Structure formats: structure tokens, C-alpha cells
Amino acid sequence: MLWVFVAGAHVVWEEMVSACWCGLLAALSLLLDASTDETATENILKAELTVASLCGRLGLVTPRDAFITAICKASLPPHYTLTVLNSNAANLSGKSYSILGQTVQIISPSSESHQQVVAVGQPLASQPQGTVVLTSKNLQCMRTLLNLAHCHGAVLGTSWQLVLATLQHLVWILGLKPGPGGALKPGRAVEGPSTVLTTAVMTDLPFIANILSRLFESSQYLDDVSLHHLINALCSLSVEAMEMASGNNKEPSLFAVAKLLETGLVNMDRIEILWRPLTGHLLEVCQHTNSRMREWGAEALTALIKAGLAYKHDPPLAQNQRLQLLLLNPLKELSNVLHADIRQKQLESVLQILQSQGDSLGPGWPLVLGVIGAIRNDQGESLIRTAFQCLQLVVTDFLPTMPCTCLQIVVDVAGSFGLQNQELNISLTSIGLLWNISDYFFQRGEAITQELGREEEALQKQAQEKGETLNRPFHPAPPFDCLWLCLYAKLGELCVDPRPAVRKSAGQTLFSTIAAHGTLLQQPTWHIVVWKVLFHLLDRVRTSSTTADKEKIESGGGNILIHHSRDTAEKQWAETWVLTLAGVARIFNTRRYLLQQLGDFFEAWEVLLNHIQSAALSKNNEVSLAALKSFQEILQIVTPVRDSDKAGDAFAAIGVPPVLIDPLSASGPGRPLVRSDSLVERLTRYNGAELQAPPPGEESALEDSALWWSAWNTWYRTGTDSTRPPSGPTEKFSFIPSQPFLTALIQIFPALYQHIKANFSMEDLKKLGVILHGAVSVPISSDASPFILPSYTEAVLTSLQEAVLTALDVLQKAICVGPENLQVMYPAIFEQLLLFVEFSCKPPQYGRMETKHVANAKYNQIQLFAPAEWVALNYVPFAERSLEVVVDLYHKTACHKAVINEKVLQNIIKTLRMPLGLKYACPSESTWKLAVSSLLKVLSIGLPVARQHASSGKFDTMWPELANAFEDFLFTKSTPPDNVSIQEFQKNEAVDVEVVQLISTEILPFANFIPKDFVGQIMAMLNRGSIHSQSPSFTEAEIDVRMREEFSKVCFETLLQFSFSNKVSTPQEGYISRMALSVLLKRSQDVLRRYVEDERLSGRCPLPRQQVTEIIFVLKAISTLMDSLKKTQPENVDGNTWAQVIALYPTLVECITCSSSEVSSALKEALGPFKDFMQPPVSKVQNGES
Predict the structure, then answer these.
(1) pLDDT higher than 80, residue 633
(2) What share of the chain is helix, strand, coil (3-state, %, to 5)?
(3) Alpha helix (H) ranges present in 550-620?
(4) Quick check: 434 and 510 in contact, CB under 8 A?
(5) Residue whose C-alpha is closest to residue 350's, from 287, 394, 295, 413
(6) For residue 496, what is the DSSP state?
(7) I want to staple 251 with a disulfide (CB 3.0 to 4.6 A). Which of 42, 190, 798, 999 is the partner?
(8) Which N-terminal residues, if any, form the signal peptide (predicted)?
(9) Residue 311: how many other CB atoms lie within 10 Å
(10) Longest Cα–Cα distance in the chain
């Protein structure tokens, strides 16, 4: 039909149509209903189509809709009205039979229709309602309807609703299902009786499907308004379908969703105008309860987004950021959907987008990363795994292509994967990704810094314009540093994750990252790292460790067995505490030169020491020992001053004139961004840090000593608390520090002392003494003892005892080379060592703890003790080594004023009295032997000093102490063990003899400098020694040897030697001589008399061997005396002595009757010398009597 536009004709046409359309419609509808001939039907339909399109063009909505409705009704089965969806289908009578195994229903045509039935299907309704039939006329009308939509779509306007609704129902009845891209394909109905199609219609279906697709493809030729009509109609259809499908899991009608997808795909060039309504509706579909509906909604939405990003827009997406964000936005919106299947679809499409368009996402990155990071613990493993694949792809391939402002988001997302608790391996791998990200930051540092700097300026400008302040995390730090801080903060969070494996991995990564890349940070940023990252982490770990559960964990999930050292939450947290503390200490050690330039280094140092102290005092051996290792680490720090010197020397050595390298200009503001592999760069950085420090003058030295004293206080508190014995009766579970812990504690002291010796006072020394004593007294648990204790036969020190002696040795050497005022400390060191010496006989007590002493239990019995028992160490080797140290030290210091004033010699003798007195009763035989040899050595040095200061009275109290020590040792109350061999006994006697020789060479010759009482005691002792003293249990044969004859003889000779000393220089010495001789002569008289009596009484029986030996010894002594008298000047012997000598004669004569031949021969020798004095000159006698 030719349209001829005449001015004003429009109005006329409208009038014409308005006048006749009602009649036309009635007539045509009736004809159409009655027509049975295909050609006639075709003509009638053509007429209706023509009128409908004409009305459309003229904009007459009502007649247009009426004609379209007529065609629609004719397309649908009889009585199938859209408004009455629940009308029952005609009751069809029929029987069924099978063709080729397919159930086919033969349906008798209804009375109203004489058409051939071509299809049977289900009506699209919310409730199942039996079946409906389609005739060939219905399909003919449907083709006309498609034709109308295809050719006249532009004029349909709101009637699209009618057309599409009808098509939707027809498609449903025919059982067409959407395929990829939204095209419809013949498919089988899922529920209810099978759809039955005749062969005729089967061949027709692809054609119908094709026309349907072409219909929506042709939507690209519609103008914008018509397109909107189409989209709106599809959306409202879809809403109906959603309502119908809600609440049941029946197969929904997907016609509208599929066609929305098709329409969107063909209109990509103007996607902006339809994108919001299209995606807005599809997002609603994605939240539907019916899973098939949701699935298609997501399929349609993700397909549209992928197509949109892949389409070659003009201008391209890279230059049209707004469009790109518009396209990606629905993807982000999908994150709010709670259904896992939708999220899975979303993440799969993200993965595909990354693989195909990853390089060109640009400003879309925050959206994409937001989608990847929107994971929650309740989403199940597979979702998290898919999301993580996306993240891995981003980190491995796309970091360089994304804007630097997104890097922080990447860090956050990686962190959130670390924190999810569904899949442990993903958590661990994401920590690895964080390490890779940090590596990327390091390599691209300069570029990132510049880009972030530009971005920062722009943001700053915007904020100023709006009059706001710039707000971002860690704000005062520069943007690049903030990036690092975000990374550290994320790793810090992961370090306190509930899972031990994650904590361990995160801790190692955090400290490795700071160690490897910390140099990139600006100096002030370190302040934030120390306080906000490291100390914050330490606080959290400490809190978690101290409150962790002590319940045993049976297994690690599955069949994993847990080692006993990790089988409670507390033990697992202990490992984290150890790792964290060690990491922080290492940073303080390696970065100290940098940290010291921060204003509050001292406060930070105090906080770190506080953490070390609380870890060292924790009741967990692993933590406490590790704390001390960290303590040792931070104490081995060299002061920055020396480092800068080294740096200078190194430059000189390399031959680089230091002037040329200006560290500040060489690498930006104190921040070398180059890799720090070459020495020059490393030194540059070192110097760069140095230049900002104040010149190393007194100020830094002062601060330094404050640091060391602070460390000493921590050491002292730790030592005091850990070695303090339990106060009350100990419970089973009281915590006793382990030997390795105490050893490490004591080993810290020498290093620490080097830094504090200048002001180390007597007070401090006393504190140290308490700790050393406490540490040595701590027993060890019996299950550890076989590994720590030397066997009892070996004289080996434990490492703790070695450490204690080393500490004292360091002190003593420092005092030796130190100034005069330090030497007042000598006596305190002696006192400490002497306390240790006492341990040999009296092991220390640890509170009121019951301990077994190894000394009393043979070593191999230790394993038999009950496991809860504690074993005291074998202190003998330690005490003996301490004694050697005492002797050695006394050797060096005997003449020091302090040593003399503080009566050190007297204290040594007093301490040695115990082992000397116990002698054979000492726990170890070596002890008294060492004690006596030490006494001899000390006296040989100390006695001359004592004589020298005799007049000052400082040694007055020492002499009685010494006399008692001699007495206790030479006349011990303990008996030698029965199994002592004769050789041993002779050796022991030789030791006694040595003591007497010392008396004769070092003491008696100087009697005039020595108090009288002391000399008297010595004489009485020699006298007692020259009388036989023996053990009555010896056999006859041994008596000769066992009577200590040698000892008696030496005592006697010493007595004699001082009796006739012709060097009588003072009356005192003469007094000693007279006293010694009179004692001796009186004793000889007594022995002889008793012998004569016993001999007379015994008759024929021989006297006991020991008495015979005694008389022989006395007779020999008398002959020795006579010889001495003969050789002595007569004036040296006083009359009293003569009287006693002469008085012996009659007693000797009485002994002649004895029956023993040995006694007789000794008697002969004794009587012989008397002949020389038988006739003494008269003058001499007178003198003697005067």
C-alpha cells in the first residue's frame, strides 16, 4: 500500500479508521473463527495485520491493541485467554496408544474447531491443569503475529506486552527452551505429561524458533523509544514468570529472560540506554528462589557483561571509563546475592574476564577486586577456591597493569583470604601471595611512589576544594609507606589467627618482609611500624598466649597426629610467642641505628624489654628460653657510632672518596630504592641514616648507658623472679625453671656487664649474688636429669655452673684492671665463692622442696625415681672448682686493703673448717684433700700478710679459727672407711705431716708476732699428736702402719726443735720451749709408769701390740731428747728441765724387767746417753737450783 502524505490528511485518516474499526474487527474475527481453509485464513489474518499496523502508524492505540488482541487470541488454543489463566482446558476424551515407545494421545477436536490438531502441551500456569491443544490454524496465526512484530515492531509501543505474552505462552506449549545466547531450541518439558507434537509441527519448529530469534535481532533497527517498550514488556513478562515460579521448584518460563539477553546482545552499540533497566531486572532474577530461574538470570547477566567488555565500542572502553564502570557495576552487585550458585557463576565470569580483558580493566580494577574479595566464611570451600584462583591470577599477571591506587585493595583482598577459615591451604598460599606482592612493591618502588604521589596531590587538591581533610589509613606517612604499613598490618592480623599454621607462616613472612624491604620506609614511618605493628602484635600474642586453653587436642583433624609438644592450644600459642618475640628482637638488632634516631627509642626499648621479661617469666620452658635468646640478641648490638666509622673506613678501602657520595641526593630523601646488593649502596644507606643522627657525643653515650641499665634492671627482675624458691610447702605443680633457661640467663650477664661496669656498685653485686646463688640451687626434674647430670664418678660441671663461675670471673677480671674504688668488691666475690664451696658438704636447699641428692643415690638409680621428683645436682665438682678459684683469687689479692679489712682469710679458714673437720665423712673424698691443699696454699700467702699487720689487730680473730681448723683436721672425729688400703692410709698420713711441717716452718719460727694463746694451742696440739692416736679396729699386722707413727714423730720433732731453739730472742719463745718440754717429759713419765704396772699385772700374757709400740716410741723419744740436750748449749736448758730429765732415770731402770726384746733394745739406747750427765759440774747445778 502506498502512503501518500497529504497535509491534513492525517486527521481524515484517523477519522476514517475510528469510524470503521469496530465493525471490521467484529467481521474479521467471526470470519477467522469460522474459516477452515488455510488460504482464506491467511487472507483474513493479512487484513487484520494491515489494520493493526495502520492503527499503529496513526498512533491509535485502542484499535491497534484490539486487532492485535484478536490475532493473539486466534493464536492460542480455544478458551485459553491470558486474563483467565486458570480456565480449564476442554475436557478431552480419548484413548492413548504407543508409537515407537512414545506415548501419544489422540485427541478428538473440540466442537468449535474443525482444524487439524498439530500439538498437545501444558498451559503456562502456576498450577498444573492438564493439557491444551494447538491446531494448525493456531500456528498460522502465530506466524502472522511474528510477522507483525518483525515488520511493524516500531509502531507496536505498549502492545509489545500482548504480543510477547502470547508468544511466551505459545513457546511454552510447544516446549521450546532457551539455549546459549538466548535462542530457543525444541526441548522436553520437565514435568507433567509429555508435550506431543506431530511430525508436521516438528519440522516447523526450527523455523518458528529462527523467526523468533530474528524478531529480537531486528530490535537493533528499532528506535530508542520502541526498544524501551520492548525491554519494558520483556521485564514485566519476566516479573510475571518470577511470581509464577516463586514458592515452587517447577520449571519456570525462561522466555523473557532469554529474550532480554538476546535483545541486549544485539544492541551493544547503544547498550548505555538499556543497560540499567536490563541489568537491574536481571539482578532481581538472580535473587529468585527458583534455582533454574536464578541460574538463567546469572547466565544472562554475566554473558551481557562479558559481551559488553569484549565489544569494540566507539570510543573504546579504555577512553570511556564511565561506560566501563557501568558495565562492571552489576558484577559487583552480584556479591550481595546470598545464593552460592550465583556467586560461583559470578566468580567464574570474573576469571574469564581476567583471562580475556585483564590487561585493559584500568579503573574497573577496584570493582573486580571487590568482587574477588567479597568472600565470607559461610560460603563454602568451592566458592572460596574459585575466588582465590582469580586472586592468584591477578597477583601473578596483572599487578603491573593496574593503577597503583588499587595495590592496597589487592593487599586487603589477599589478607581476607588468609583470614577465611574454610580452607587452610588457601590461607597459607595467600600469605605467600602477600610476600610476592611485597616483592613487587620492592622492585617497582620508584614507579609506584611517583604514581601514588601524583594521585595524592590530586586527592589533596580535591579535599582542599571541598574544605575537608584527607582521610586515609596511616595518614601522616607518605602514600608508598602507607602501602607497606597496610601490608604489615594485614600480616599482623594473620599472626594472631586461631590456626597455628597460619600464625607461623604469617609471622615468618612479616618479619622476613620487614627485614628484606624495611629499608624503603621513610624514617618517621618506622615509628608507626614499631608501635602500631610490632608492639601491637606482641601485645595481642602475649594476651592470647597467657589466656590460651590448656586442654589437650586429640588430633589435628582427619588422621593427623599432633606431637606432644604442640598438643594444647597453649603450646601452639607458645610457638607463636617465640616466633614473634624473636622477630621483633631481630628487627631491633638489625635496624638499631635507624630506630635510635626516632625520638622515643628509649621508651620502645623499655617496652621490648618488658615483653622479654614477661615471656622469660612465663611458665612455659620454650617461651622463657626463647625470650632469653632474644635478650641475648638485642644485647649483642654494637653502638651506631662504631658502625659509621666502619662505613667510612670501608669507603676508603674501596677507594671511593666519601665526599662524592652524598647519601641524601644519591637516592632520594634518605630512601635508596635500588636493590641493596652492592656494598657501596649498602654503606650509602648506612651513612644516610647516620647523617640524621646527632654527632655521637656525650648525649648518645648517656642514652646508651641508660639503655644498658634498663636492660640490667630487666635482667635482675627476671633473675630474681625466676630463681626465687617457692615460699610455702611446694605443690606438685609449682613451676621450676629449667637448666637451659638458667644457663642462658646467667650467660647474658657477662655481655651485659661490659656495658654497665662503669657504674656497677656494691649494691648491684649483692643483687647478682642472690641470683647466682638462687640459680645454682634450683634442682632439676628427674626425667631431665640423665641428660644434664654428669655421672657421679665424673667430676664435670653442668653448663649452668660453668656460667656462674664465668660470671664471677668476668667481674673479678674487671675489678682487677678497674679503678681503685672497684676493689672493695673483692670481699663480696670471696663471700659468694665461699658460699659455693660450702655446697660440697651441705648442698643448698631450694625452698622446702624435697630433693634427692645424687651424691647419696648412685647415678643409675636416677631413672627409678618417681617422675614427679626433683634431683639436686652433684655440687661437689662445682664447690671444688669454686675453691680453686678462691685460692687463685686470694693469691692475687691477699695484700689488698679491702681483703685485709674484711677478714677474707678468716672467712676462707672458717669455710674450710667444715670439709676439714668432716674429713672422711665428706660426700666426696676429693673434697677434704682439696680443702687441705687449698688451706696450705692460702696460709703460705696469708700468714706473712697476717704477721705484717699483727699490730693492727685485724687478724686477731683469725688465729683461734686457724687453731680450731688444725685441731679439727688433725684429730678428726670421723673414722676412715674400712676399705682404705695401707697405701691410701700412708698418703693420708703424709697430708697430716704436711700440715705439721707448715706449722713448724710458717708459724712457730715467728711466734713473737703471734698471740700467745694461739701458740699454746699449737703446742698442746703437737703434744697430743706426738702421743699415739690410732683406730682400735686395726689388725695386728697393720698397726705399725696405721698408728700414724710418721705423724707422731714429726709432731715430736717439731716440739723438740722449738724446745731447744737457741734463737731465744724473746721471753715468749723461751716460754714456748719450756712449756713444750715439760709437757713432753711429763708424758714420757706417765707412759713408762703405766707400762711397768701393766707388765707386772699381765704375768705371762704379752701386752697389746699398740702399748708395746707406744713404749718403744717413748724410749726412742727419750734417746732423741738426750741427744738434743747433749748438742745444746748448757745455758739454753733451764733447771726445771734437768730436774724432769733426771726424774726419768729411776722409771727407766724399773723397765729393765720387761720381757719384750724390742723394748729392751730401745731401753738400752735410752739409758746409754745418761752417762754423759751422771756427774754434772757443780757450778751448773748451782745455777740450775738458783
Answers:
(1) yes
(2) 70, 5, 25
(3) 569-590, 592-595, 601-616
(4) no
(5) 394
(6) T
(7) 190
(8) 1-19
(9) 15
(10) 196
Residue burial 1085-1122, b: 16+ Cβ < 10 Å; e: rest: bebbeebbeebeeeeeeebeebbbbbbbbbbbbbbbbb
CA neighbor of 784 nearest in space, from 737, 748, 726, 722: 737
For β-strands 176-178 and 184-186, DSSP reports them as antiparallel
pLDDT in tens, 159-189: 777 777 777 777 787 877 777 766 777 765 4
Q: Which three cell numbers stand for residue 1082?
A: 711429763
Three-state DSSP state, 110: coil
Rg (C-alpha) for the chain, rounded Å, is: 56
**Tens digits of per-residue pLDDT, 886-925?**
999 999 888 888 888 888 989 999 999 888 888 888 888 8
Enter the C-alpha cell of residue 661: 657520595
Element (H, E) at 1026: helix 1012-1026
Instruction: Look up residue 553 and give its amino acid.
Output: I
In total, the chain counts a number of residues equal to 1186
3-state secondary structure 313-353: CCCCHHHCHHHHHHHHHHHHHHHHCCCHHHHHHHHHHHHHH
Contacts of 346 (CB under 8 A, 6+ apart): 298, 302, 331, 334, 335, 337, 371
d(CA 167, CA 212): 9
Residue 695 pLDDT > 50: no
Q: How many CB atoms lie within 10 A of CB 669?
A: 10
User: What's the rounded Cα separation, in Å, for the pair 625 and 615?
Assistant: 9
Question: pLDDT at residue 85 above 60?
Answer: no
Residue 737: exposure state from Cβ atoms within 10 A (0-12, 13-18, ≥19): buried
Antiparallel, parallel or unpaired: β 870-872 and 851-853 = parallel
Give Cβ neighbours of residue 543 (< 8 Å, ≥ 6 apart).
none
Residue written as grid cell 502472522? 144
3-state secondary structure of 859: helix
Instruction: Supply 8's cell numbers.
Output: 491534513
The residue type of 917 is: G
Kindly list the distances between the CA atom of residue 575 and the CA atoms of 429, 503, 1134, in Å, as whole numbers in the listed order.
21, 9, 88
- Looking at this protein, which amino acid is placed at residue 1153? T
Distance CA 1001, CA 1017 (A): 17
The Cα 500–Cα 511 span in angstroms is 17
Among residues 479, 380, 481, 375, the alpha carbon closest in space to that of 430 is found at 375
Mean pLDDT of the chain: 78
Cell of 817: 684492671
8 Å CB contact between 486 and 408: yes
Integer Cα distance of 175 and 100 in angstroms: 20
User: Would you call the peptide bond into 315 cis, given omega within 30 degrees of 0 as the criterion?
Assistant: yes
Strand pairing partners for 185?
177
Q: Kindly report, residue by residue over 271-293, the tens digit of the pLDDT.
A: 888 899 989 988 998 988 888 88
Task: State how far the Cα of 238 lies from the Cα of 234, in Å rounded to an integer.
Answer: 6
| DSSP letter string, 1156-1177 | -HHHHHHHHHHHGGGGGGSS--
Q: What is the mean pLDDT of residues 223-249?
A: 84
Cell numbers at residue 812, please? 673479678
Grid coordinates standing for 359? Answer: 590487561
CA distance 63 to 138: 22
Nearest to 279 by CA among 252, 251, 307: 307
- The closest of 374, 669, 310, 361 to 525, measured between CA atoms, is 669
Q: Which of 487-491, 503-507, 535-539, 1017-1021 comes out lowest in average pLDDT?
A: 1017-1021
Please state the pTM of the whole predicted model.
Answer: 0.75
Q: Supply 897's cell numbers.
A: 686493703
Q: What is the pLDDT of residues 923-944, one digit of tens each?
A: 888 888 899 999 999 999 998 9
Backbone angles phi, psi at 176, to 5 degrees: -85, 135
